[in-house]
Amino acid sequence: MGEIMLLIFVFVIAGFLGVELISKVPSQLHTPLMSGTNAISGITIVGAMSATAVAVLAPSSIIGTVFGVVAIVLATINVVGGYLVTDRMLGMFKKKEDKKK
Hints:
By secondary structure, the protein is mostly helical. It has three helices and no strands.
């Protein structure tokens, strides 16, 4: 029980720290920050796949397998969405072509 409480405590503190850090980032740095976050999320996908592979090999670990698959799906959505948003933000800085062409 104490281990679960410690994990919940770390999760809550990480959430508060994330909100504080992101709120202090200037708008000019959001695109590079998102690119770095996408790279970290890519590592999260690899970790989720590794954990799911271990859970699949365990004899009675249906819950671990389900959580692993959910983690893979959510991390993939995060990476794809992050790249789409980054691409859209970078598109805002491109010069607009002449309409006559």
